[in-house]
Amino acid sequence: MKTYLDCYPCFLRHGLDAGRIAGLSESQQKRVLNGIMKVLQEMQPEATPPELAQIIHRRIREMTGGADPYKEIKEEQNRLMLSIEESLKKEVEEAPRPLVAALKLAGACNAIDMGPTRTWKTPEELIHQLRNPNLDHFEERQLLDCLTKARNLLYVADNAGEIVGDKILLSILKREMPIDITVAVRGAPILNDANVEDAIKTGIDRLGNVITTGSDAPGAILSGCSQDFMENFETADVVIAKGQGNYEALEGCKKEDLFFLLQVKCGVVARDLGTSEGKITLRKNRPGL
Amino acid sequence: MKTYLDCYPCFLRHGLDAGRIAGLSESQQKRVLNGIMKVLQEMQPEATPPELAQIIHRRIREMTGGADPYKEIKEEQNRLMLSIEESLKKEVEEAPRPLVAALKLAGACNAIDMGPTRTWKTPEELIHQLRNPNLDHFEERQLLDCLTKARNLLYVADNAGEIVGDKILLSILKREMPIDITVAVRGAPILNDANVEDAIKTGIDRLGNVITTGSDAPGAILSGCSQDFMENFETADVVIAKGQGNYEALEGCKKEDLFFLLQVKCGVVARDLGTSEGKITLRKNRPGL
């Protein structure tokens, strides 16, 4: 997805939030904003939002000496989700179609975000959302058809915490279908996106081979991904890409059996997807669009 | 009030909204955003938000050949308020203290804004707000004390439509106190701020001498105001300045008996005033703060 003009104010707000989470001084925050504005003025028209977010967060990390400002937030999110994993899994197992229920749960877990405005404040609100996902355009039949024929799946994860929901989905999928699973996480700290250590801490690594995108972008921008990731991406029979960042980076790319599972978190993506903010949606990629 | 870093994203959103209201093409909107970012990068640290808004709107008017993009919006707002003027006035007259009720009404009318996010969508919602003002820190006693001793008042108006509420206040004030009234409106089109033609259309000119700030800024930035305005400002026994733009431009200036009457429309001003968004507040200036 290209960067729309409506994304510009959002990038400044995002950079300011991130700078504050990183503990930058006001003059450093101002330098971050000036840097973002310089990038926005000079950017190529086809640049995607995750490319810009990558630049913004690199600059913030440089200013903080390379530390990961979201480390504690991610640990808290993993902890919270692990503490309710069993009860969520039980609900999914008791649903009439556990695999579909797990897909909806995994989509709802995309609410655990730090980028655009969060739609929940307390753990209770989050749990309520996970149990009552606000769905729209949920193409589960198309995805299940593809999965039935597939031998392997590449699952491109998004956030820490959220991957506990992904783990529930993949454990049920693995039980119901004879499919090889590869889970891709980000190659370096970026926002609250899941890295290898989050995959290990939450135990999703026990369900499939864990690789990384090889990049510190908050979305799998193919031109910046490692050869290992690209080989997995190109040879996967099915790809499920979680979250808005992966949607923004991958929508319209050549891959046929690629599905986006996300919560829509801003008006720009809502318009792009023909839905509204807050909805959990599952869409098949439309190559070349 | 200085421009806070939180104002930066808001300026881009504001510029984009204004560009769209003015009917600019996408590439023109992009030029507006680039221009705003250039200004923000180069601005003096003490520049106030209305100074930046002035620059943004000048640029948009240049691009549209000098037309006023808010002309129709202002006419509609004047029409709406004139259509309910009599019923609002009747309610105020029937209140136990009509002058205080009129002050609250005039404050509530500041909801008729086009700058930051509007807190109403339909005329019904607006009327409900006008009749049930959400007040906080309403220093009416201090203002009434000053007015009782004063011989003349300078009333610095804010928006079109809103000035019908100002007119109701000034008519009751004039009846209850022997005071000379001067009403200042903006010197040129800027946002939906009231100009001389709005003063005449709504009949507020029948209650006092109408002057202008001599400027196209959406707030009375003293360094940009005309000599006529400055003389009125300096010699006025009491000044009432309406709206967030006038607050941002004038708070902390040397004038002693200066009162701000506004609806708080963003988190930055809310913090600056120690209140919360949406509140209608009346505050005495604190010179030098």
Mean pLDDT across residues of chain A:
93
Number of H- or I-type helical stretches of chain A: 12
Distance between the termini of chain A: 10 Å
Indicate the overall shape of chain A.
Answer: globular
Low-confidence stretches of chain A: none
Q: Give the proportion of residues in helices of chain A.
A: 40-55%
The ordered string of helix (H) and strand (E) elements of chain A is HHHHHHEHEHEHEHEHEHE
Sketch the major β-sheet of chain A: 7 strands, mixed
Assembly classification: homodimer
Largest beta sheet: strand ordering of chain A:
1-7-6-5-2-3-4
**Do you know the CATH topology of the largest domain in chain A?**
Rossmann fold
Give the CATH class of the largest domain in chain A. Alpha Beta
How would you characterize the overall build of this protein?
2 copies of one chain form a homodimer. With 289 residues, chain A is of the alpha/beta class. Chain A folds into 2 domains: 7-63; 72-284, 3-Layer(aba) Sandwich (Rossmann fold), CATH 3.40.50. Helix content of chain A is 51%, strand content 12%. Chain A has helices at 7-21, 26-42, 49-63, 71-94, 98-108, 123-131, 140-149, 162-176, 196-202, 227-235, 243-250, 267-273, and strands spanning 135-138, 152-156, 180-185, 209-212, 238-242, 258-263, 280-284. The first copy, chain A, has a 7-stranded mixed β-sheet with strand order 1-7-6-5-2-3-4, sandwiched between helices. Chains A and B meet through helix 1 and helix 2 of A and helix 1 and helix 2 of B.
